[in-house]
TrEMBL record:
It comes from the Eukaryota. This is Profilin. Binds to actin and affects the structure of the cytoskeleton. At high concentrations, profilin prevents the polymerization of actin, whereas it enhances it at low concentrations. By binding to PIP2, it inhibits the formation of IP3 and DG. It comes from Planoprotostelium fungivorum. Gene3D superfamilies: Dynein light chain 2a, cytoplasmic. One of its GO terms (molecular function) is actin binding. PANTHER family: OS05G0241400 PROTEIN (PTHR36780), PROFILIN (PTHR36780:SF1). It holds the Pfam family Profilin.
Length: 138
């Protein structure tokens, strides 16, 4: 998939019939030496998720420092709490139990993938998002 644009790549994850209802790829190498100075826009690509710059920055900083589980993750009007931590990933649930759903945040060498899913399909969404994160071109 390395010849596919990041926007198309994210669209493949969120595409028709997918249990993932929103996804964003954040660049985690904006502050590394040799990286050209840019605006503080960390979002490389997203679909069905409107991360504000402050939300993206918060997720990126906390995921990079391995402290994402210490705070709520807020995306728009939705608040998530991390309930499980793996070597490179964080899994959480929507704090509004009436709405349900959850969030998956996976770190890769040069990016952070944020994906949301509806209802109680974490058992299906987690392997899908993890596999997708493995295939993001570095």
């Amino acid at each position: 998939m390395s010849n596919i644009s990041p926007d198309r790549y994210v669209s493949n994850l969120v595409g028709n019939g997918s249990i993932v209802n929103g996804a964003t790829i954040l660049s985690s190498n904006l502050n590394t030496p040799g990286t050209p100075a840019r605006s503080r826009n960390f979002v490389v690509a997203q679909k069905n998720m409107n991360l504000k710059s402050s939300e993206a920055s918060h997720i990126l900083e906390k995921a990079t420092n391995n402290t994402l589980h210490l705070d709520y993750i807020i995306i728009g009007q939705t608040q998530y709490i991390i309930t499980s931590i793996q070597e490179r990933s964080y899994y959480g649930r929507n704090t509004n139990t009436e709405v349900g759903g959850g969030i998956i945040v996976c770190k890769t060498a040069k990016s952070v993938l944020v994906a949301t899913y509806p209802g109680s399909v974490s058992h299906e969404a987690i392997p899908l998002v993890e596999h997708f994160a493995d295939s993001i071109p570095q």
